[in-house]
User: Which sequence fits this backbone?
Protein backbone atom coordinates (compact mmCIF):
# COMPACT_ATOMS: atom_id res chain seq x y z
CA UNK A 1 0.00 0.00 0.00
CA UNK A 2 2.80 2.43 0.91
CA UNK A 3 6.57 2.26 0.66
CA UNK A 4 9.75 3.95 -0.45
CA UNK A 5 12.95 3.28 -2.37
CA UNK A 6 16.37 4.90 -2.12
CA UNK A 7 15.28 7.64 0.27
CA UNK A 8 18.09 10.03 1.15
CA UNK A 9 17.91 13.34 2.98
CA UNK A 10 20.45 15.99 3.99
CA UNK A 11 20.13 19.08 6.15
CA UNK A 12 23.07 21.28 5.19
CA UNK A 13 26.14 19.12 5.64
CA UNK A 14 24.38 16.53 7.78
CA UNK A 15 23.08 13.30 6.25
CA UNK A 16 19.78 12.39 7.91
CA UNK A 17 18.63 9.42 5.81
CA UNK A 18 20.70 7.04 3.69
CA UNK A 19 19.14 4.91 0.93
CA UNK A 20 16.10 3.77 2.97
CA UNK A 21 13.68 1.31 1.36
CA UNK A 22 10.72 -0.69 2.67
CA UNK A 23 7.13 -1.64 1.76
CA UNK A 24 3.98 -2.10 3.82
CA UNK A 25 1.16 -4.26 2.42
CA UNK A 26 -2.46 -3.14 2.58
CA UNK A 27 -3.74 -3.63 6.11
CA UNK A 28 -0.22 -4.20 7.46
CA UNK A 29 1.58 -2.38 10.26
CA UNK A 30 5.28 -1.51 10.02
CA UNK A 31 7.25 -0.05 12.92
CA UNK A 32 10.37 2.11 12.73
CA UNK A 33 12.57 2.19 15.80
CA UNK A 34 15.82 3.94 16.57
CA UNK A 35 17.50 6.40 18.86
CA UNK A 36 16.74 10.11 18.85
CA UNK A 37 18.26 11.67 15.72
CA UNK A 38 18.25 8.43 13.73
CA UNK A 39 15.91 9.93 11.10
CA UNK A 40 12.60 8.31 12.12
CA UNK A 41 10.42 11.43 12.13
CA UNK A 42 12.05 12.84 8.98
CA UNK A 43 11.25 9.61 7.14
CA UNK A 44 7.65 9.77 8.33
CA UNK A 45 7.35 13.37 7.09
CA UNK A 46 8.57 12.27 3.65
CA UNK A 47 5.93 9.52 3.56
CA UNK A 48 3.35 12.14 4.56
CA UNK A 49 4.21 14.29 1.53
CA UNK A 50 5.66 17.14 3.60
CA UNK A 51 7.69 18.46 0.66
CA UNK A 52 11.19 17.75 1.99
CA UNK A 53 13.84 17.82 -0.74
CA UNK A 54 14.75 14.16 -0.62
CA UNK A 55 16.27 11.64 -2.99
CA UNK A 56 14.42 8.47 -3.94
CA UNK A 57 10.79 7.52 -4.51
CA UNK A 58 7.65 7.17 -2.41
CA UNK A 59 4.78 5.07 -3.74
CA UNK A 60 1.16 4.64 -2.71
CA UNK A 61 -0.90 1.69 -3.94
CA UNK A 62 1.68 0.95 -6.63
CA UNK A 63 1.88 4.51 -8.05
CA UNK A 64 4.74 6.96 -7.55
CA UNK A 65 3.87 9.97 -5.39
CA UNK A 66 4.93 13.30 -6.95
CA UNK A 67 7.03 15.74 -4.93
CA UNK A 68 3.92 17.93 -4.68
CA UNK A 69 1.18 15.39 -3.99
CA UNK A 70 -2.37 16.17 -5.10
CA UNK A 71 -5.16 16.77 -2.60
CA UNK A 72 -6.38 13.20 -3.04
CA UNK A 73 -3.09 11.92 -1.59
CA UNK A 74 -3.65 13.78 1.68
CA UNK A 75 -7.06 12.26 2.05
CA UNK A 76 -5.60 8.77 1.66
CA UNK A 77 -2.56 9.35 3.91
CA UNK A 78 -3.01 10.98 7.31
CA UNK A 79 -0.69 11.53 10.26
CA UNK A 80 -1.03 11.56 14.05
CA UNK A 81 1.65 13.58 15.81
CA UNK A 82 3.50 12.95 19.03
CA UNK A 83 2.08 15.68 21.26
CA UNK A 84 -1.65 16.42 20.91
CA UNK A 85 -1.13 19.51 23.05
CA UNK A 86 0.73 21.19 20.19
CA UNK A 87 -0.94 19.35 17.28
CA UNK A 88 -4.41 20.73 18.10
CA UNK A 89 -5.14 24.45 17.67
CA UNK A 90 -5.78 25.81 21.17
CA UNK A 91 -8.42 28.31 20.02
CA UNK A 92 -10.53 25.85 18.05
CA UNK A 93 -13.20 23.62 19.53
CA UNK A 94 -13.18 19.89 18.90
CA UNK A 95 -16.09 20.47 16.50
CA UNK A 96 -14.04 22.92 14.43
CA UNK A 97 -10.93 20.71 14.54
CA UNK A 98 -12.90 17.79 13.12
CA UNK A 99 -14.80 19.92 10.60
CA UNK A 100 -11.64 21.33 9.01
CA UNK A 101 -10.55 18.19 7.09
CA UNK A 102 -14.14 17.72 5.91
CA UNK A 103 -14.11 21.26 4.52
CA UNK A 104 -10.68 20.78 2.89
CA UNK A 105 -11.74 17.55 1.20
CA UNK A 106 -15.24 18.87 0.39
CA UNK A 107 -17.09 16.12 2.21
CA UNK A 108 -20.75 16.51 3.07
CA UNK A 109 -22.84 15.37 6.06
CA UNK A 110 -20.38 17.06 8.40
CA UNK A 111 -22.57 16.92 11.48
CA UNK A 112 -23.11 13.17 11.19
CA UNK A 113 -19.45 12.52 10.31
CA UNK A 114 -18.22 14.45 13.37
CA UNK A 115 -20.61 12.63 15.69
CA UNK A 116 -19.48 9.28 14.27
CA UNK A 117 -15.79 10.23 14.49
CA UNK A 118 -16.15 10.94 18.21
CA UNK A 119 -17.96 7.65 18.75
CA UNK A 120 -15.26 5.77 16.81
CA UNK A 121 -12.59 6.91 19.28
CA UNK A 122 -14.82 6.36 22.33
CA UNK A 123 -15.30 10.02 23.19
CA UNK A 124 -18.64 11.27 24.54
CA UNK A 125 -20.60 13.83 22.55
CA UNK A 126 -20.11 16.29 25.42
CA UNK A 127 -16.51 16.98 24.32
CA UNK A 128 -17.61 18.24 20.90
CA UNK A 129 -17.74 21.92 21.81
CA UNK A 130 -14.85 21.93 24.28
CA UNK A 131 -11.38 23.34 23.66
CA UNK A 132 -8.23 21.18 23.82
CA UNK A 133 -7.15 22.61 27.20
CA UNK A 134 -10.44 21.38 28.67
CA UNK A 135 -9.57 17.76 27.82
CA UNK A 136 -7.16 15.26 29.34
CA UNK A 137 -4.05 14.21 27.42
CA UNK A 138 -5.64 10.93 26.42
CA UNK A 139 -8.79 12.69 25.21
CA UNK A 140 -6.72 15.14 23.16
CA UNK A 141 -4.89 12.28 21.46
CA UNK A 142 -8.21 10.59 20.70
CA UNK A 143 -9.37 13.83 19.06
CA UNK A 144 -6.16 13.89 17.01
CA UNK A 145 -6.80 10.30 15.90
CA UNK A 146 -10.43 11.14 15.04
CA UNK A 147 -9.26 14.12 12.98
CA UNK A 148 -6.81 11.94 11.06
CA UNK A 149 -9.47 9.30 10.33
CA UNK A 150 -12.51 11.46 9.62
CA UNK A 151 -11.81 11.74 5.88
CA UNK A 152 -11.45 7.95 5.53
CA UNK A 153 -7.72 7.46 4.80
CA UNK A 154 -6.09 4.19 3.75
CA UNK A 155 -2.78 4.88 5.52
CA UNK A 156 -2.19 6.18 9.04
CA UNK A 157 1.27 7.49 9.95
CA UNK A 158 1.92 7.56 13.71
CA UNK A 159 4.78 9.63 15.15
CA UNK A 160 5.28 8.32 18.71
CA UNK A 161 1.53 8.61 19.42
CA UNK A 162 1.74 7.60 23.09
CA UNK A 163 5.05 9.06 24.29
CA UNK A 164 3.44 12.31 25.53
CA UNK A 165 0.76 10.44 27.49
CA UNK A 166 0.66 9.14 31.03
CA UNK A 167 1.52 5.48 31.36
CA UNK A 168 -2.02 4.79 32.58
CA UNK A 169 -3.57 5.84 29.24
CA UNK A 170 -0.89 4.63 26.81
CA UNK A 171 -2.34 1.11 26.65
CA UNK A 172 -5.84 2.48 26.05
CA UNK A 173 -4.69 4.50 23.05
CA UNK A 174 -2.66 1.59 21.63
CA UNK A 175 -5.63 -0.77 21.96
CA UNK A 176 -7.86 1.84 20.30
CA UNK A 177 -5.44 2.08 17.37
CA UNK A 178 -5.32 -1.72 17.06
CA UNK A 179 -9.13 -1.88 16.99
CA UNK A 180 -9.40 0.91 14.41
CA UNK A 181 -6.80 -0.76 12.22
CA UNK A 182 -8.73 -4.04 12.29
CA UNK A 183 -12.15 -2.46 11.72
CA UNK A 184 -11.04 -0.13 8.92
CA UNK A 185 -8.30 -2.29 7.36
CA UNK A 186 -5.85 0.57 7.85
CA UNK A 187 -2.23 0.39 6.77
CA UNK A 188 -0.02 1.77 9.55
CA UNK A 189 3.54 3.07 9.78
CA UNK A 190 4.50 3.67 13.41
CA UNK A 191 7.60 5.54 14.58
CA UNK A 192 8.75 5.00 18.15
CA UNK A 193 11.80 4.52 20.34
CA UNK A 194 9.79 2.10 22.52
CA UNK A 195 10.09 -1.52 21.40
CA UNK A 196 7.10 -2.54 23.49
CA UNK A 197 4.82 -0.04 21.73
CA UNK A 198 5.99 -1.14 18.28
CA UNK A 199 5.72 -4.84 19.09
CA UNK A 200 2.15 -4.35 20.36
CA UNK A 201 0.90 -2.87 17.08
CA UNK A 202 3.21 -4.03 14.27
CA UNK A 203 4.09 -7.32 12.58
CA UNK A 204 7.34 -6.07 11.05
CA UNK A 205 9.96 -3.69 12.39
CA UNK A 206 12.70 -1.67 10.73
CA UNK A 207 15.71 -0.51 12.74
CA UNK A 208 17.25 2.87 11.89
CA UNK A 209 20.83 3.75 12.82
CA UNK A 210 22.38 7.05 11.72
CA UNK A 211 19.76 7.37 8.98
CA UNK A 212 20.25 3.87 7.53
CA UNK A 213 17.80 1.00 7.77
CA UNK A 214 20.17 -1.62 9.17
CA UNK A 215 17.67 -4.44 9.74
CA UNK A 216 14.06 -5.43 9.02
CA UNK A 217 12.61 -8.31 11.03
CA UNK A 218 9.32 -9.69 12.27
CA UNK A 219 8.02 -8.92 15.73
CA UNK A 220 8.19 -12.64 16.55
CA UNK A 221 11.89 -12.69 15.65
CA UNK A 222 12.49 -9.63 17.78
CA UNK A 223 10.75 -11.19 20.79
CA UNK A 224 12.74 -14.41 20.34
CA UNK A 225 16.03 -12.54 20.08
CA UNK A 226 16.65 -13.52 16.47
CA UNK A 227 18.34 -10.20 15.64
CA UNK A 228 21.19 -10.00 13.15
CA UNK A 229 22.48 -6.46 13.70
CA UNK A 230 24.34 -5.50 16.90
CA UNK A 231 22.31 -2.29 17.22
CA UNK A 232 19.03 -4.25 17.20
CA UNK A 233 20.44 -6.60 19.80
CA UNK A 234 21.47 -3.64 21.97
CA UNK A 235 18.02 -2.02 21.69
CA UNK A 236 16.38 -5.29 22.65
CA UNK A 237 18.64 -5.77 25.68
CA UNK A 238 17.95 -2.21 26.81
CA UNK A 239 14.21 -2.72 26.41
CA UNK A 240 14.31 -5.90 28.48
CA UNK A 241 16.31 -4.08 31.16
CA UNK A 242 13.85 -1.20 31.25
CA UNK A 243 10.87 -3.56 31.50
CA UNK A 244 12.45 -5.65 34.24
CA UNK A 245 11.15 -5.13 37.78
CA UNK A 246 13.44 -3.09 40.05
CA UNK A 247 15.62 -5.05 42.44
CA UNK A 248 14.27 -5.57 45.94
CA UNK A 249 15.79 -3.26 48.58
CA UNK A 250 18.34 -4.88 50.88
CA UNK A 251 16.99 -6.26 54.12
CA UNK A 252 17.35 -3.97 57.11
CA UNK A 253 19.71 -5.57 59.61
CA UNK A 254 18.18 -6.32 62.97
CA UNK A 255 19.86 -6.01 66.31
Assistant:
Amino acid sequence: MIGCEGIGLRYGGTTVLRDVAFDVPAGGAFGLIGESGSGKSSLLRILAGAGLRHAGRVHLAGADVPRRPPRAFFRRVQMVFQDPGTALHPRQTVDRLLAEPLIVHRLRDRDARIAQALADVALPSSVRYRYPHQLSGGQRQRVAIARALIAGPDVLLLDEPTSALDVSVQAEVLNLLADLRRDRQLTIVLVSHDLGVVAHLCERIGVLLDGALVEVLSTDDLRAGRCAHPHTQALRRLSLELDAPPPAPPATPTR
